[in-house]
Amino acid sequence: MKIHEYQAKEILRKYNVPVPKSIVAFNIDEAVEAAKKIEGNVWVVKAQIHAGGRGKGGGVKVAKSIDEVLSYSKKILGMQLVTHQTGAEGKKVNRLLIEQGLNIEKEFYVGITLDRSRSENVIMVSTEGGMEIEKVAEENPEKIIKEAINSEVGMQPFQARKLAFALGLSGDAFKNCVKFLLTLYQAYQATDATLFEINPLVLTKEKNIIALDAKMNFDDNALYRHPEIVALRDLDEEEPLEIEASKSNLNYIKLDGNVGCMVNGAGLAMATMDIIKLAGGDPANFLDVGGGANPQTVAEGFRIILADKNVKAILINIFGGIVRCDRVATGIVEAAKIVEVKIPIVVRLAGTNADIASKILENSEMKFSIATNLNDAAEKITKVLAA
Amino acid sequence: MSILVNKKSRVLVQGITGGEGTYHASQMLLYGTNVVAGVTPGKGGTFYKGNEKDVFNKPVEVFNTVQDAVEKTKADVSVIFVPAQFASDAILEACNAEIKVIVCITEGIPTRDMLNLIKHVKKSGATLIGPNCPGIITPGECKVGIMPGFIHKKGNIGLVSRSGTLTYEAVWQLTERGLGQSTCIGIGGDPIIGTQFIDAIKLFNDDPKTEAIVMIGEIGGSAEEEAAMYIKKYVTKPVVGFIAGKTAPPGRRMGHAGAIISGGKGTAEEKIKIMQDAGIVVCTSPADIGETMKQVLSEKRKIKNGKHKIKIKTKSKSLKISKLKKK
């Protein structure tokens, strides 16, 4: 699960990780009020969307007066912000963060994430703050310093010292950085995060170490023990069809292609998308109906795929294990009665009760194209796309 | 032979009286798996025969703790069906009772819970398979998991995969072509899992009964790459591979928690390239896994007979297997 920058900063505050003074605003009046409350003479107006690269897209502006806060807020709030992560249509800005301007001396990077191959969390820092860390990793890998955290004992002060020295810090700045890194890791652990990224982490002229930006992802599997994080979900940032699908326990991801697909199991779903591509189409979605596929979930899956106007054909690929193919077939026939289907449907069912399932489909009034195996399914998709 | 489980395995089911546990225990019993015990805290001392929906073909003794079950029945393999919140505890309980092979089917275990136990389990010498996996099967002998038994056939191909239904698909393609399997393992789609590709590949390489290996990966992480490096160095048996998710967009989690391309890492292209460099015959289409293996095996047999001209053709692409030529 992803959250906004201002929410991430609230979490950091809760764990005593230093962040600038900042207040979220949902309208222009709130933005001006926020600036007055924060005081000072420099503010930063920041668009709050779930995507990186906001500054380059014009979503972050430095204001030197309350009037400028007002004019920038007017400009940014409601705009379609386009960044390298939003796609061409961009994302509408519904929330602003009004933040105190800082006297920045240096910018660094700090990130914490899971190293899967070592089964350990890793905390890394870089002097190349403010840059895209992927780029740094590619061009100057030596500029990223990593420390693996032993999960049995947690992050140790010596590790924080190593990292702070690697950033070239000394004196108060060094002390503040050590404290910052240790509390940051505590926050990461306590919230079941899978990613913390502070970019940039800044050293101010006053020798304070402060998180100027904050990006966080959380482990979906652990959300049951974090209702306070679940409450931060912003449905405006999610695809409406994906929200609907999640209500029916369907794992759906919208893509830009022309062939919809419905599959049981994530691996087979990905493989089916690959088959669609090889057959000359483009997958319109990822949809895993899961191990408990029944007529209701199949019907719901159908409805969601058909709500995407780009879809020109549908490929259903079910390998019956626990899921019985005859039940899925019944679901498909039932669903096709309720939802008006005007596009060709290729169905491939294998495994448990596949033969009964084919009969159910053949005997229905719908014209399904029944594929016997994956290759056959691919050929049938190619054919319907050409027609 | 086979790897990890066989007809001598004494299987314990943790969470046997729950819905999932009951259904799959009944299926394992039907398959002929030697299910010797079940564990459900509070229900020890009873014999469980399934519920009205799923009736066991023989009663299974239920114990309060894994320790009790092991002492009484000498169980050496455990399969876990307990809910995600309690699953890490169940893994540690099995490990503590010195179960040798622990298969965790449970989906949705928090990553932090797995991180906290994974090193301990590895140090203990137990083999953990999963979590969030379909389990392991040695066809005709022992099924420990949720895979449909009938699609398998006893034979000489070892299969290892991160996914569930895609594994069944590959197995079915093999079986349909008369290619049986020595053992099939689904290692699971989570970021932290007990048995990695490399571990399974090592075991298959050392198993005299396994003649060739199928390895089915997906986007995300670097486990396939690490296995490929190992294969390049040590594996003498032919390996056929596939990577799912060539069409997956970066930054989106494709069902499995582990299946995500992040920071430009873990793409299908990258994995395929490294696998091909290691001499693995990588299928472009998931529909070609069975056919490719069939051809690889027939070429392998020709080489044995002294014929050295090799070219493997599948529907989508013609593939070279330079690795085989060398041997």
Q: Which overall shape of chain B is indicated by the principal axes computed on the Cα atoms?
A: globular
Radius of gyration of chain A: 25 Å
**Beta strand count of chain A:** 18
Specify Rg of chain B, calculated over alpha carbons. 20 Å
Shape, principal axes of CA atoms of chain A: elongated
Most extensive interface, chain pair and sizes = A-B, 58 and 66 residues
Arithmetic mean of pLDDT of chain B: 92
Order of helices and strands of chain B: EHEEEHEHEHEEEEHEHEHEHEHEEH
Largest sheet of chain B: 7 strands, mixed
- The helix fraction of chain A, in percent, is 25-40%
Total number of helices of chain B: 10
Strand content of chain A: 25-35%
Distance between the termini of chain B: 24 Å
Which class do the helix and strand fractions of chain B yield?
Answer: alpha/beta
Overall mean pLDDT of chain A: 92
Task: Summarize the structure in short.
The complex is a heterodimer of chains A (387) and B (327). By secondary structure, chain A is an alpha+beta fold.
What does this structure look like?
The complex is a heterodimer of chains A (387) and B (327). With 387 residues, chain A is α+β, with helices and mostly antiparallel strands. Chain A is built from 13 helices and 18 strands. Chain A has helices at 5-14, 28-38, 66-76, 133-139, 157-166, 171-190, 227-230, 240-247, 266-278, 295-306, 325-338, 354-363, 374-386, and strands spanning 22-25, 43-47, 60-63, 80-81, 91-92, 96-100, 104-115, 120-126, 144-149, 193-204, 209-211, 215-218, 251-254, 259-263, 285-288, 313-320, 345-351, 368-371. The mean pLDDT of chain A is 92. By secondary structure, chain B is an alpha/beta fold. In chain B, the strands form three sheets. In chain B, strands 3-4-2-1-5-6-7 form a seven-stranded mixed beta sheet. In chain B, strands 9-8-11-10-12-13-14 form a seven-stranded mixed beta sheet, sandwiched between helices. A two-stranded antiparallel sheet of chain B has the order 15-16. Residues 322-327 of chain B have low confidence and may be disordered. Chains A and B meet through α4, α9 and α13 of A and α4 and α5 of B.
